Fold each of these.
Amino acid sequence: MIRIENISKKFKRLQALDRVNVEFHKGQVVSLIGPNGSGKTTLIKCILGMVRPNSGRISVNNEYIGEDPRYKNDIGYMPQIGRYPDNMKVGQLFEMLENIRNQSADHLDKELIHQFHLTTIFEKPMRTLSGGTRQKVSAAVAFLFNPGILILDEPTAGLDPLASEILKEKILKEKRKGKLILITSHILSDLEELTTHIMYMQDGKMEFVKDMQTLREETGELRLSKAIAKIMKGESLGTTWIEKILNPGK
Amino acid sequence: MDRKNSESWKVKTKTMLKLSRYILYDILRNKIIIAYTLFLLVISISMFRMEENSSKAILSLMNIILIVLPLISLVFTTIHYYNSYEFIELMLSQPMSRTRILLSEYSGICISLLTSFFIGIGIPVLLYSPDATGIALLFTGSALTLVFTSLAFFASVISRDKAKGIGIALLLWFYFTLIYDGIVMLILFAFSDYPLEKFTLVLSALNPVDLGRIFIMLKMDVSALMGYTGALYKDFFGGGWGLLFTTGIMFLWVVLPLWVSVRYFKRKDL
């Protein structure tokens, strides 16, 4: 569904993406992990056409992406930090997006709007919302149009445990429908129950993509965090960030 | 094929207008735009009240329009652009082309600034001085609003940093309202031995503020004070050609910066 061919991107001196090749298919939940600044968000933005890569190309649903933005009809995106026009009310935001997308009402997926009780704040302007509530709005927006591809950038960061659980349930539900879901997150325990594949990035390079089964077999570890830590050590990538996440006390 | 094209064009315009509507709604609730409207309204009403002769009031209003209007248009547009950066990002994740997003932003800002202008200056002028000079004033004011909004888009699209964007916008303002006149003076002074009348006509086209000033001045009686150049201007701008020339040049000043911004915006990383 998404094919990334030899993508490179340079921001001035920083090589944000370095010849990344990867392919994602329907029914996969791919966790994009790697240290801060490893190019995860840049890769996502390339797929969304927000960042123009220097070389290489990307195809979504078997079509190379270019000027025509219509391929985004099949993508739901939840940004890391969702910010919206200050004076716009929550209800208006949804109304506007529905207006722009022009999709028939019975195809809309308003489950998250109801589960997060967003209808109760429809009259509130966006600027009065807390960070967590904005995240809820972003999540509801991403799922609203029932897209075949979901791209979630740090979806659970900033959400309270209850909301985070609701979102995870929703992701699982969409996974069962055979959608492609791309997630970046630093909270590995959150990904554990969702993910089918792990893609690890560092310094703009894709280090590996492995499915969970292979990862577990190769490492002999059942838990995702431990498995990844083992891989890191085995391949001696010279990084300690993963250990910091595992043992924040030390 | 043609029909299909025009259909898709219709759909495109429709979605663009939809987006502009929300941008407009967002801006119109902005306190700055309300303050701007009130400011213009207070100034124009007090001008007309204080001056006995309405053409004197028009002259004072002209100076406001030529100096304050470009400044407000530039600064407001630049700040609005940077404040809606995240909104632009959100729109980019939707199936919207970049051209459409930028043009929606442009029309949203233009409509709100023009609305302020018409409430703040348009209504008083039409009430107190509804003659050719008044209309010329309104025409110039609207054209300058469009031109400087366009220039502000250029300034903000080419610079990622907010401070730099506003800096460039302010530099453009200094250039068009102060520096340019200085340069023209210098040229006219240095080459005063040569016949420069036609040349000054060209020079005026290179600065929308100057063009606007000449266009309004020639509708007043003061052009008699400008000597031979004034007569030449009067000859040129007085007729229908003058209006056509001014409209054409102003149009170019709107379209060119906007076109460059759209082209740049399309390739930009956000």
Amino acid sequence: MMETALTEAVYYILLSLLTPMHGYGIMQNAETLSGGRVRLAAGTLYGALSTLVAKGWIENVPDGGEAGRQKKYRITRLGREVLEGEWNRLGELYENGRMLLKGEDRTI
Amino acid sequence: MRKTVHKVIWGWDFDKEEAWLNDMAAKGLSLISVGLFRYDFEETDPGEYQIALELLEHTPNHPETEQYFRFLEETGVEQIGTVFRWAYYRRKTVDGPFEVFSDKESRMKHLIRILWLIALVAGGNFYAGVYNLWLFHLWHNPISLLGIISFVLCALCCWGIWKLWKKIKALKEEGQIYE
């Protein structure tokens, strides 16, 4: 179902939101998961979250009526499908790389 | 102690402006408030803060912007002030490297937003210039010749658009190889 690759930011946002969390949590999570390599800047993250909500890949978690509190997000069923599709695509890239680069099987 | 600096920097040179403000912050002078071509600094520990600026998508008092500022605050970003749609931020260096955008796509979107704003100003000035010259043609009132200033401003904006376009093109070319 996927036509193109997800950006690294979107991949880590979707991955993070398998557990509901707020924006700052996503930033920290992405950084920890990638060993400090992926730093999502606030402006980029904010834009990506709005786009993903509009696409229906993530949604706001209804808060307990606390006005002005940080918004929490979680992944939707559709978002999960997209994430799994991307994971498969990355697996294919990885597998082909391993095969040709490491010469484990030169017969294609 | 506070220090005020007056300096003219055009919108298309916002990255140079950001670099200059960061140089000041590294020396221990952090931006504390802004006005049109005016910068107020306060003394801090050298390198305590990092500065960034952004052309907002909406006006500074738009509800969307308020929500956005709240989001930034949660990530440790302090909003210093706004000039028209330009917003100035700072964040403590201990929180890590500070940027508003971290990938090519969002950087490009931001550049295109600036380009449109400048194109609008250029168009407005061109219109004002033509209108004034037409008035001069009708009434021969020398004051209408001030319309020439509009053409100069329009030309300046076109120069800015060209500089921005080069930046956007460079990002696009890089984007064909890297995300």
